[in-house]
């Protein structure tokens, strides 16, 4: 059996709104293709060897937990940046997405240093951007999820797509997330991967390709997943009407 390894960063601090479900979705869809997914929890960053990771995942957290996680991840920021530049597939959600940038400004104006892996920043406000979200993505089709963040993120990179309902990166641009090399950053909790098999398969396929493992993108029957997604799309768009 083929194997892939996921490094799950800071699961003890960053697991808002069941972000752990993303790991379950990766495991499930890998198994359907006879790939065993090994999950390594990284709560301490000392002496880690990122070359052993085929995918990485960072979930979301409150501002406090986010600041603690950033301190730990600052120790490996060069390794992480090099790995991302080299095409390591990764998913980062909300707080985990925000701290890849230059800085995170809290609602009371405090500046928390980011990892400086990508050139963007996030400014948080007291009023939160919360609720269901629907995105149309050229690459992934319709993406659905749930968002709850004070942070407004501004960047010039590719995004996951255009927001049809909800907020996404901020309350002005109608764009959601980031897509840089094989890195996906998103505000979508819920968790995002079980609701969007296209994103799950994108990460698995990128990891498999990088490792030279065969991967059949079309292999699985997604009828149930598509029907569930349609319910969420209808619910969001009816809320709008
Ligand atoms: N602290 C961040 C914000 O509110 C992240 C929250 C989250 O991960 N859901 O913007």
UniProtKB/TrEMBL annotation:
Subunit structure: Forms a heterodimer with MurT.
EC number per UniProt: 6.3.5.13, 3.5.1.2
Protein name: Lipid II isoglutaminyl synthase (glutamine-hydrolyzing) subunit GatD
A Gene Ontology biological process term: regulation of cell shape
Pathway note: Cell wall biogenesis; peptidoglycan biosynthesis
Pfam families: GATase_3 (PF07685)
Family to which the UniProt record says this protein belongs: Belongs to the CobB/CobQ family. GatD subfamily.
Record-linked InterPro entries: Class_I_gatase-like (IPR029062), CobQ_GATase1 (IPR033949), GATase_3 (IPR011698), Lipid_II_synth_GatD (IPR043702)
Catalytic reaction equation(s): beta-D-GlcNAc-(1->4)-Mur2Ac(oyl-L-Ala-gamma-D-Glu-L-Lys-D-Ala-D-Ala)-di-trans,octa-cis-undecaprenyl diphosphate + L-glutamine + ATP + H2O = beta-D-GlcNAc-(1->4)-Mur2Ac(oyl-L-Ala-D-isoglutaminyl-L-Lys-D-Ala-D-Ala)-di-trans,octa-cis-undecaprenyl diphosphate + L-glutamate + ADP + phosphate + H(+); L-glutamine + H2O = L-glutamate + NH4(+)
Entry GO MF terms: carbon-nitrogen ligase activity on lipid II; glutaminase activity; transferase activity
Function recorded in the entry: The lipid II isoglutaminyl synthase complex catalyzes the formation of alpha-D-isoglutamine in the cell wall lipid II stem peptide. The GatD subunit catalyzes the hydrolysis of glutamine to glutamate and ammonia. The resulting ammonia molecule is channeled to the active site of MurT.
Highest taxon above the source species: Bacteria
Positions contributing to substrate binding: 128
Source organism of the structure: Staphylococcus felis
Positions of the CobB/CobQ-like glutamine amidotransferase domain: 6-196
Active site: 94 (nucleophile), 189
Keywords from the named record: Cell shape, Cell wall biogenesis/degradation, Glutamine amidotransferase, Hydrolase, Ligase, Peptidoglycan synthesis, Transferase
